[in-house]
């Protein structure tokens, strides 16, 4: 069989300079299917499974779409993922199936986050704040993309409202159907760069992928006319290489996003709120009934809206809860890793490893 050679650096891989063991090959995860992973490396594409002694003992972080990993390549079967390499960015939310107890990684190693809302029925300022907070926390640069401009005759008010919330973030109105506004996305479509798409089902993520690719590479479902909600066209996270050399990680529709660690993200998204904190008379001001509270004054004179302040407090409360949960879970994970290493050493000393 003729060997296919791919340049993994075209998929954003940057060697870290560390020596690799014989038989180890860098690869990128392009899709996740429960306990199997679709990968691409210098040998081509294929499926891979995890090395159980590394991943199921807590020593390695489970890969997600966009991760760079080291593998043992198997041309005739499943390759084996040995290690997850250090992530430069990652997007996480509370796992909806864990009752708020665990983190779910959505994507890793991307440069931009396209936060997508449609200009007809999907536009939601409070949800936009939540997406922005998590996007800033990821370490990548957010971009707000308002889709379906062809379905809204006058969308300037929504555009201005989104711009007021996004502040320093670009807000771009587009139509995948007519091509309107797509030229403003081109500066982000650089070879080797990765963009993650985030938005509710029916917002038009798959349509935008097809429009940017210039061909139909993703299935597009119709949406209900009464509320513009659609079915989940994308059923799993997948990385797609566009003809221009940029990559897109498309995700299943996520209408609700639970806060995980958003310490930095809140400060970026709500910098207009937090700017008042340093202007209060007392450094430990709780922004309630204390004298000289700058936040209270801003609320009274209209500089800061009640809606914006309430939204900040809500997300801040969520962040405090998940921060305490995260500390607890990390401590539990560290204990589990310690036990795993101890048990492994015992087996090694007893001759269980040959």
Instruction: Quickly give the structural class.
Output: alpha/beta
Q: So how many helices? A: 8
The major pleated sheet works out as: 6 strands, mixed
The tally of strands reads 13
- Poorly predicted spans: 222-234
Strand content: 15-25%
Distance between the termini: 34 Å
**What's the Cα radius of gyration?**
23 Å
What is the mean predicted local confidence, pLDDT? Answer: 83
Helix content: 25-40%
Oligomer: single chain
Shape: globular
What is the chain-wise order of helices and strands?
Answer: EEEHEEEEEHEHEEHEEHHHH
Biggest sheet strand line-up: 10-9-8-11-13-12
Quick structural overview:
The protein has helices at 52-55, 125-138, 156-166, 205-213, 263-269, 271-274, 294-301, 306-349; strands spanning 24-33, 36-41, 44-50, 68-72, 79-84, 90-94, 103-108, 112-118, 141-147, 171-173, 194-199, 238-241, 247-250. With 354 residues, the chain is of the alpha/beta class.
């Amino acid at each position: 069989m003729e060997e296919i050679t791919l340049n993994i650096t075209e998929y954003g891989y940057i060697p870290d300079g560390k020596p690799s063991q014989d038989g180890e090959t860098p690869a990128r995860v392009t899709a996740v299917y429960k306990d199997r992973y679709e990968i691409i490396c210098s040998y081509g594409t294929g499926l891979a499974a995890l090395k159980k002694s590394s991943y199921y003992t807590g020593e390695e972080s489970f890969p997600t779409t966009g991760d760079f990993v080291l593998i043992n390549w198997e041309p005739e079967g499943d390759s084996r993922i040995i290690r997850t390499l250090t992530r430069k960015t990652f997007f996480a939310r509370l796992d909806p199936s864990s009752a708020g107890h665990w983190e779910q990684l959505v994507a890793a190693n991307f440069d931009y986050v396209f936060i997508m809302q449609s200009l007809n029925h999907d536009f939601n300022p409070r949800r936009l704040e939540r997406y922005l907070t998590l996007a800033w926390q990821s370490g990548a640069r957010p971009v707000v993309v308002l889709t379906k401009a062809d379905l809204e005759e006058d969308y300037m008010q929504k555009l201005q409202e989104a711009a007021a919330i996004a502040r320093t973030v670009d807000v771009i109105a587009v139509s995948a159907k007519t091509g309107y506004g797509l030229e403003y996305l081109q500066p982000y479509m650089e070879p080797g760069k990765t963009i993650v798409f985030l938005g509710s089902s029916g917002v038009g993520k798959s349509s935008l992928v097809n429009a940017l690719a210039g061909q139909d590479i993703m299935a597009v479902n119709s949406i209900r006319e009464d509320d513009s909600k659609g079915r989940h066209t994308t059923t799993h996270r997948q990385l797609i290489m566009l003809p221009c050399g940029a990559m897109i990680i498309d995700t299943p529709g996520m209408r609700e996003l639970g806060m995980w660690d958003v310490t930095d993200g809140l400060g970026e998204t709500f910098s207009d709120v937090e700017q008042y904190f340093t202007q209060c008379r007392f450094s430990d001001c709780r922004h309630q009934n204390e004298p000289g509270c700058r936040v209270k004054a801003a609320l009274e004179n209209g500089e800061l809206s009640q809606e914006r302040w309430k939204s900040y407090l809500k997300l801040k409360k969520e962040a405090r809860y998940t921060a305490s949960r995260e500390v607890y879970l990390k401590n539990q994970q560290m204990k589990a890793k310690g036990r795993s290493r101890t048990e492994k050493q015992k087996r090694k000393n007893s001759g269980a490893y040959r």
